[in-house]
Amino acid sequence: MFYHKYLNPSKLKSMTKKITQVISFLSIFIKLKMAMKLITMLLLFGAFQVSAVAGGIVTLNNLQQKIVSGRVLDSKGNSIPGVSVVEKGIVNGTITDLTGKYTVSVASEKSILVFSFIGYTSQEVTVGNQNSIDITLVESASTLNEFVVIGYGSTTKKEITGSVSVVKAKQINKMPVSSAIDVLQGLTAGVTVSQSSGTPGSASVLHIRGIGSINGSTNPLYVVDGLPQNDINYLNPNDIESMAVHKDASVAAIYGARAANGVIIVTTKTGSVNEKVNFTYDTYLGMQSAWRRPEMLNADEFITYKNLAATNAGAQVQPDFSSQAKIDSVLRFVTANTGRNGTDWWKQIVNQGAPIQSHNFSVSGGNKTVSFSSSLGYLNQQGIINGSDYKRISWRNNINAQVSNRVKISANIGIIDEERQVIDENNPFTGTIFSAMTADPITPVFRNNLVEVPSYLSRINYGYEPSNPFSQYSGILYSNKRNPVAQINRLEQTTYTMLGIKGGLNIDIKIAKPLFFQSRIGMDLGRAFTDAFNPQYTLNSNEYSTYATVSNNTYNSQYFVLENTLNFDQTWGNYHVTALAGFSEEATNVAQFSASIQGLVNNDKDMRIINAGTINPAVTGYNYSNAIRSYFGRAGFDYAGRYILAFNIRRDGSSQFAEGNQWGTFPSVSAAWRFTEEGFLQEKQIGWLTDGKIRASYGQIGNQNIGGGAYLSTYGNTFGRYLFGNQTSAVIGAGRLSTGNPVLQWEVSNQLDIGLDLVFLKGKVNFTADYFDKKIENMLLIVPLPSTLGYPNSPYTNAGNMQNTGWEFDLSYRNAEGDFTYSFDGNISAYKNKVTKLGDGEPIYATAHLGEVITKTEVGMPVGYYYGYVTNGIFQNAKQVEDSPQRDVSTPGDVRFKDLNDDGILDAKDRTMIGNPWPDFVYGFTANLGYKGFDFSLFLQGSQGNDVMNIQKYDTESGTGFYNATKGFIDKSWSGEGSTDQFHKISQNQGLNNSVSDYFVEDGSYLRIKNLQVGYTFTGKLLERAKITQLRFYVGAQNLLTLTGYSGLDPEIGSSDPKLTGIDQGYYPQARTFMTGVNLKF
Amino acid sequence: MKKIFYTAICIAILGMVACKKDFLNRPPLGVQTEKNYYQSPDAGFKSLVQCYQGLYDFYGYEAPKAELGNMATDDSDKGGSDAGDRPFVLDLGYGRALASNGTLQDFWGGCFRGIGNCNVALDNFPINNLIDAEGYLLPETTKSRYMAEIKFLRAYFYFELARVYGGVPLIDKTLTVDNKDKLTRATSAETFGFIIKDLEAASAEVSLPSKNDMPASEIGRVSKEAVWALQARVYLFFAKDDTKLFAKAKDAAKKVIDSHSFALDANFQNLFLPNSYLSTEPIFTVIRGDDPGQQIYGSFIPVYTSPRGPTGAWGFDTPTQNLVDEFEAGDPRLLFTILESGDVFAKTAGEEVLDFSSYPNTGYHNRKSYMPPSRRGPGWGDDAWTFHQIRYADVILMYAEALLESGGNAQEVADNINLIRQRASNSNHTDAEAVSRVRNIPNTPLVDVKASDDLRKAIRHERRVEFAMEYQRLFDLMRWNRLIETMNSYGATPKANGKGLNVKKGINELFPVPQTEIDRSGGSIKQNPGY
């Protein structure tokens, strides 16, 4: 059932050709424009770094501090590089260098240094009067002492009371993916990532523990180095140090308002004090291809198909194919211009072997007080469908300065510059992929050198202008679809660019032990610009534009956040108490406008300027602003690392609600019992059980993520014109624009989590299990109102409840035997989504292709389940039709539907659940093997039990003969009594065949080899002499194999609208990528 | 000392930010609220315009009107690419429209949105001092003229609803969300009373001008005569339940005639050519233009109903052979009602030859809503297609019918019918916009109707051919109590494909109320019998 077409030896030749293409492409990889951008950035980078370090040296003189140095060794006496040496309780520390040495400045003799490194047991040492501290770390595969970043602070994995999964740089670097969100796919239980498109640079859809809302946002909150974000798609995965996914309320609650769908805290890489300046260069090059293609009818078969559809309906056949002589001359036309089979539209739009390349250069280092890191990344990815290219330059800088022994300042700034082209996708009306499947094979791609054109096909020359390159394409002859090649060519005239500047400044002030204060200012500026052009052209009466149009669109957003926290951290013997009180404000301002004009002189590039237009100037624009103000607090108690208790409370005010309803208070409580710390259960007694912890948390989080002003009825211009007295000057209407709901308030998510963490065999085996119950109340929902009320819209109301309950399991095993190291990680998670209340109980329907109801959301059922008729085979003869409720509309060969309520009438009441887009469970499995210099990793990811609604079949197997059909459709379709009970007949008269039914529902389960990689790390004198610290080569593949029963292009179909999940409407498929890469450190 | 210093810094930073009081006060920008909108310049006139805009709504008004008025009857079939193209439209004429029918849902919503806009204005005009565009207080007479127009429009939308669904919920002010399960349907008679009350208020309004007193720049706005004409239409419709109303219909129509504000256009086709709104015949007309540069977007009806194929249109609303057969030989109106394969129209370069061969259809399309390429403007789909909701010919025939049914003078009835027939005979017999038409209309004048003829039959014939494809057929059949019989006998003809055959007495006189309205009102809105 799997497809390895492109591994087929016969394809190797074309692959070799592609490799040559990639190499030649690389030789000019940085075009002049990009080179200029890079040079400018490097210059800026230099200036920034020099001034920063200089600043650090100046402040150094003012410092009073105690300097401690030493060396960290393992039990065999070998030095360990990269050990984290941190001053306990505050944000200060370094890591050891290559020889295991470190130097750190501490506040006083009372300071405690914590030495930790993955795979070793952490050690704490009180500095006292020592100036030199050497440490021997004992190996322990346990990760219990690893730091975990939580909201406004950090804790250790041992002490955490909530459900958290952490993904580290080491795992991330194994996945050469271009998006930071995709990193999380399949790696941790409870997180589902699905691609909303295979387009390079497109956003994936991430859900933590199911969907949190029906109308509002379902995105989690991302916090990148303290900066709250809605999306991290822009982030270069290479820059990420760790991602901590907080799934329950215990930690998320401190983020209150925006954390209802979970929180993902992202930390980027920074330098360390006293770190020698080192450079890394990571790169990979890859070739992407579609792993599957649609097989459609060729010219000959298309004619047969189309005539069959007409004859079976008793209609006259298409005049072009009405006699054998005519068919022959049509086929002569096809053969002479495109070849015997006619146009293979898919081949014309697909970019097999599309190159992807990523270069990442970073430098980091530090002296006694200042450390820095800077990372410059460049990604250039072509889409596997022509005309969807993506480029990204990202530059991220972190700098930390210990200004005095009380004050530490850290700053970071990231600059992202993106440029992309897009195709028309996921759209069954005009989408390119849909068109490539349904356009007839008779139409040639181009019409500028046609031969043997029969007189009745001369309409193909309609509107042809030899001098206009956009007119060289043929209009599709036998349907209203766009010529996909022409469409791509037109759309790639439009470029979308985005510049993002994201920065933050942190000030840490030690007031007096145990009190310290933190202040953080964050900023996120977005500048998006669209330079759009649609040419003047005519292909046929469906596809033309009388005038060329140029339009520019700008979108400016700025977001500011200010957070202040006062922290308390004190240990009395076995008692450890932490507390935090904080205040934060965040505000967003957006200004958008776009302008367009028509009537350009011609389609030339230098004419695509607004001022060159002559007619129909148009402009639109809007501004909006929203804000949140919050007060929050946390208290944590820990007795001997055995009983751990934490409280959070947050009070949020949101500008999204009317005065009086703006504020909401959201508390949470969590507790953990490390039962292995109890005397009778300690490792000494049990042996195999290293650590065990039971966790529980319960809390509330608010959600206000809806469009602004929903509480207000608004009045103003409707922008509608009306004409009195003439056709050329209009009067403008105004009045009520929207009906608001003044009593709108916070949606509340109540989350219960019970978890168990077990560590066996000194950390070789780790097991985590979680059960959760997430109840969403007062859900912000657009409940459809009777249109009798005459409102222009249905306002938001707090009208629904929803529940997600589920289980998550993570199991990992890692071990080493001699030179052989290996680890296996598996996770599986399952949840059930159920709507428990919905306004007055009236269901919400969602429509897709052709505006028909396709999903239903109602009480007691999961959100957005597929809703339609149940098929009951095919009518085999007239008697069966006559005996059925379909006697007036159907004929033998049509689909028979079940009259579910047995009332003898087939009507809307006979529709029911015909599919569930939500999987029974999702899972991931990773294997990492290492032997000497070799490493091997395998990552599998899958989804089981979800259905896909293959809406493409509406057109590709509708039997109208209007669009092209899939190969084999003629043979498998009903052709007389007893021929098949599965596929309806081919006929222009579709009757009810295209009603939404389980005819279109398929099993969307899949298992995918997401990533496979083999690498080799070089060692030896040569490298040392060349001052190279690390050199690794690898080859790998992404999406190498997909096992699925789904017949469409790709079973992995995400949607940002939960009500339209898993509906294949001409979806951009995932690429299969073969890649090779280098990691270099010097 | 240092501790105090740092504590001070912390307090200062905290203090800096926590004071801005209206930090959370961020209402939407660029819009107003009920409080200040009505005090803004020209709010009155703009609100009036918004009430008119309901007539521009394609899916909520124009399309359903065409689908019900034409396609649900023996005059026209659905058309489109095939049976699966907007299949619910097909159901209307087969007597099997479901409560979930798209057309019926859209029409209900469109009309009630229009009513909602009227109610918002009528709620707020009396309690606010409106100002004009220059900022001066709006004279009371102007305000009351606006309100008279709005009442006409509210009556217009209610009348559309009453004909299709029977009695509907009567809402005369803006309701709040919590009223959603208190909506109940009035009876048909109550709905009639509500409509007449609004129309009487409008016609009694002295500041509502007569057509004669309106400047050319106000064509398209409601005149006193438009109110009377609508009164005639409403009385005539409800006369099926109460024959006394024929006399009232007659009087209302007579007032329009006696105003001498209108005259039949000498050339029938002028009513469907550019600038038709300048003709002497329209009484209530909806002017459409096509100038995207000025945000003037026209009607979608021409694309919806023009032939498929080379034109790129959708090909709905195809006249039946049965309708074509209704025309007498020599009636030029047939030429301006239908199109056929092979008809040729001019294009900027070349010709547009109509070709209906690539999809199922009746062999005809609607000429009255077809626009040759020269009139299509920059965006085919936003067309300067002006439509006359009420024209003078209708008033004359309504007068004739009301006169006849109320026992009036037969000769006067015949004379009025003949006005319409003579105008047709005297009109051009060639298509002013076509290069060539397949069909030739012989130059045989229509024979005058005599007072001794079956005048009821004559009027019914005349209405069918005069207003063919102008969305009147369904409602004419309804008020003649002829819908079921006509559709049943039409269904028996071979080309009907069974349409009309299953239309049933006691059920199909009305269409079902949308199920969504019943559900969303918690069942307080009730369904019509039989659905």
Report on the structure:
The complex is a heterodimer of chains A (1082) and B (531). With 1082 residues, chain A is mainly beta. Chain A is built from 14 helices and 52 strands. Chain A has a 22-stranded antiparallel barrel. Chain A has a five-stranded mixed sheet with strand order 10-15-16-13-14. In chain A, strands 3-2-5-6 form a four-stranded antiparallel sheet, with no helix packed on it. Chain A starts with 8 loop residues before the first helix and ends with a strand. Residues 1-7, 25-32 and 43-64 of chain A have low confidence and may be disordered. With 531 residues, chain B is mainly alpha-helical. In chain B, a hairpin with a 4-residue loop joins strand 5 (344-346) and strand 6. Chains A and B meet through strand 22, strand 26, strand 27, strand 28 and strand 32 of A and helix 1, helix 3, helix 6 and helix 18 of B.
Descriptive key words:
heterodimer; A: 1082 residues; mainly beta; five-stranded mixed β-sheet; 14 helices; 12% helix; 44% strand; disordered N terminus; B: 531 residues; mainly alpha; three-stranded antiparallel β-sheet; two-stranded antiparallel ribbon; 18 helices; 9 strands
Number of strands of chain B: 9
Biggest beta-sheet profile of chain B: 3 strands, antiparallel
Radius of gyration of chain A: 32 Å
Structural class of chain B: mainly alpha
What do the pLDDT scores of chain B average to? 92
Strand order of the largest sheet of chain B: 6-5-9
Query: What is the first-to-last residue Cα distance of chain B?
Result: 86 Å
Q: Rough shape of chain A?
A: globular
What portion of residues of chain A belong to β-strands? 35-45%
Secondary structure tally: strands of chain A: 52
List segments of chain A where confidence is low: pLDDT < 50 over at least 5 consecutive residues. 1-7, 25-32, 43-64
> What is the overall shape of chain B?
globular
> Unreliable runs of chain B, pLDDT <50, ≥5 residues?
none
Work out the helix count of chain A: 14
